[in-house]
């Protein structure tokens, strides 16, 4: 890009540039994904095991080894409500950091639900309706996923029931109201509506809840009615592949900017947002099309599954109801502190990401709450957007990459994402500005204790 | 547009399509705008009168009779953070209404501050910095304008002090926190920091405040320091002309859709958002390029300046500090009920809009709170976006236009706007969904009483 074009901050694509297929990384991975296991028998899971829980189209994708999966026309039409999403160069942040690096960020806060989550909520609702399903249940941490599913449910005329982690339910009342506006029903989890919830409440009536508990509740609720299925917001491979529209668009947009990333850095809870951004670029590396790009996954100190967890088989939920997955985990009994990046409070992360971390292709890093809010405020005051605390992990990482490039004088090209806006997280910003946002770091004993309870199945090397 | 293209919902423009000049309607109006008057002498206002209060570039534009005013490069660069904004066809709402009408909406909720207000906040901050100003003060109703100015202040390194109407300050705590995140100082108005505020509090310590009171406070604060100027979020012609980027973009986008509006309908408080959308189309009518388009301005029943007010000289603020303006007004002593569309709680509206209403070119209409929230929820559940209560007035109007077209079977093309998102207005949605949102209609006596206090100057016919 010439000097004359330096003032270009944003590249938008038209509806014609919307991807026509999702990218599935499974066939390109450096090793086969170990099979998921049945939660009771610990035998390899079959599609039939999942059909009572998930729409058939989703089950098919979950087991798919096809590289490209066509996006249905109706889903592409609905994607147009917020896609293609904009890509920005953070010129003002670069100047403030006085770095030779270029920072590009893909902005997903433009969706009606405020994050990347509708990228998968809409296809999940689509496949549910195709099967004649009337209702979807789900968990939500910070409320981003629950909002996305409520939005998708409204578009398809589906009932939606959301189990929202109590810590977030109390921190973010507006998120609940947003879901109501789209017609969803929202419960503060743990509830007394499910066996899983009642068991948690019996042990600790003041439990702040966790994504793992909320998943257990939503699964039990879904299994209790024939017309109901469950929708998961992250971790599953079908969710991750839906999210690749982000990275596929980003690639086209970076081409228009005339760049290719030296580092792709993003935030990871279950891993779907970062997979969506990075997998189309990791594909270039795995297939030998490109070399030299680094991939960095950022998580909170308080829930450090990739940096301090173990690569092992574990349940995705607290009550051990979900399929046993090969993943980086802190143990399904791990109870993360009620930090404001509620969307990153899950003890495990996605199986495909586990393989990429295990093989050294993705390198994890973690930050404290204060470190990430500091980055978020700096970003708001230079680039304008006020982001979700989850996204702030990515931006903190990008800032550190840019500062490292300044040390060496390197013209590093950094690609990152702002996975959602922070309009429902203002109370946390206010605490940070007042200097009263607490940091939480789990003790090694806490993690060891949770890991002691892993299911009796080893991931083969 | 062919049947094959029917699935196109959104037209995005690239940075190359950003307007290079703002449109000033003044030279094209059917009558000269009567001069604004000095608040004490009631003599025609001169540029020198305004220089202690406003940046010189803004004063120049306020008196300009040039049709096109070039947008400075730095402002265009910053506009790229959220502009060109998207234009949608509300296909799903059309289907739900079963109408032959086409509904297009320009969406301004993509800006970091969440509304169209940064379109003028950024140039106002730009011209302030050009004069060496260090601080800007302003009023805000719902908080949209205060947020926009705080955002612009952060981009330019300007201090920002916002007087936020108490009713909104209490209804929308997150708005205040958003302004803090951009580094602004926010006070609940009326305050005891200014003479104007103290006078109101002395008469009524529980005053919910009003935009008129907050303007008085911000003006007094600005005049108290040499390094400080005042920034107004609506009403002034310079503000309205900045907003025409909306309509200029909309015209290009409608061309791509292959349409021209039969009706342009929007919400009006001070009038800047609707002027921004409509003036480039009204220009076509005034200059004879196009005929047959109707222009409809929608306001709340609770603050009906265009539908029930008088066209007269009046002060823009409660304490009679601002320039006396020829406008539709309910009287500067009118105290609107604390409705949730706080941005529409001003007793008057813009002088140029006054002329257009007086000449029958713009027709006003009003709705109750429940009518507009009903439209907003219907929109959220079809088109996805959750909008500000202000914007819901526009959408309610657009829905009624579409339903009228259904009666007659007419293929009417409706252009409207969603001037901002409703992420900070969720409490009002929750009240509406619970059926406990109150409606407010002022009595004729209330309006008569306020109008009795007009300044002693007549608008010549």
Please, could you describe this protein's structure?
- Two copies of one chain form a homodimer.
- Chain A is of the alpha/beta class and 461 residues long.
- In chain A, 40% of the residues lie in helices and 16% in strands.
- Chain A has a seven-stranded mixed beta sheet, with helices on both faces.
- In chain A, strand 10, helix 13 and strand 11 form a beta-alpha-beta unit.
- In chain A, helix 3 packs antiparallel against helix 5, helix 6 packs parallel to helix 8 and helix 12 packs across helix 13.
- Chains A and B meet through strand 1, helix 3, helix 6, helix 8 and helix 16 of A and strand 1, helix 3, helix 6, helix 8 and helix 16 of B.
Query: What's the rounded overall pLDDT mean of chain A?
Result: 95
Q: Flag low-confidence runs of chain A.
A: 1-6
The largest sheet of chain A, given as strand count, sense and whether it forms a barrel, is: 7 strands, mixed
How many helices of chain A? Answer: 19
Largest interface, counted by CB within 8 Å of the partner chain's CB: A-B, 48 and 48 residues
Oligomer classification: homodimer
